[in-house]
Amino acid sequence: MSDPNCIFCKIVAGQIPCKKVYEDSELLAFHDIHPWAPVHVLIIPKVHVAMLSEVDETHEKWLGKMLLLAPKLMKELGVTNGFRTVINTGPDGGQEVYHLHMHVFGGPRPWAKG
Ligand code: 5GP
Ligand code: ZN
């Protein structure tokens, strides 16, 4: 359920601080420590699942809740003009923290040209 070496499990357990924006029994959402956008939130399950390629049917409920939460949080955080959701999976997916998480980027896009 929890991996003692996992940084996001430590955040779930309150052993590492975070700027929390949402919490319930299954999910936690907090600001990314190195934001790539004006609003950059991570939505994670409290249970330790390393990556999206390791989910199964028993995870269906909180997986759905992650997607439902993204637009609610963006609205609460004042994002009115759209946002981007990203789940990096595995080495070729650019994943660095091996506890499943969804990035939600809001505000003007830093990657947009012009
Ligand atoms: P990944 O590349 O695995 O999809 O993204 C991991 C993200 O976690 C990165 O954007 C990184 O800035 C963020 N991150 C890593 N460690 C911490 C931490 O201790 N606290 C917070 N709030 N974000 C973290
Ligand atoms: Zn973990």
What does this entry look like structurally?
By secondary structure, this protein is of the alpha+beta class. The chain has a domain at 7-83: HIT family, subunit A, CATH 3.30.428.10. The protein has helices at residues 7-12, 60-76, and strands spanning 20-23, 27-31, 39-45, 83-86, 102-106. The protein has a five-stranded antiparallel sheet, with helices on one face. Strand 2 (27-31) and strand 3 (39-45) form a beta hairpin. The longest helix has 17 residues, at 60-76. Helix content is 20%, strand content 22%. It is globular. It contains two helices and five strands; from the N terminus they run αβββαββ. The structure holds guanosine-5'-monophosphate and zinc ion. Guanosine-5'-monophosphate is lined by residues 7, 16, 18, 30, 32-34, 88, 94-97.
Mean pLDDT across every amino acid position:
95
Task: Just name the CATH architecture of the domain at 7-83.
Answer: 2-Layer Sandwich
Low-pLDDT runs of 5+ residues are none
State the CATH topology of the domain at 7-83. Answer: HIT family, subunit A
CATH superfamily of the domain at 7-83: HIT-like
Distance between the termini: 45 Å
The fraction of residues assigned to DSSP E strands is 15-25%
Neighbour order of strands in the largest sheet = 1-2-3-5-4
Main β sheet profile: 5 strands, antiparallel
Broad CATH class of the domain at 7-83: Alpha Beta
Helix amount: 10-25%
- How does the overall form come out from the CA principal axes? globular
Q: Rg to the nearest angstrom?
A: 14 Å
How many distinct helices?
2
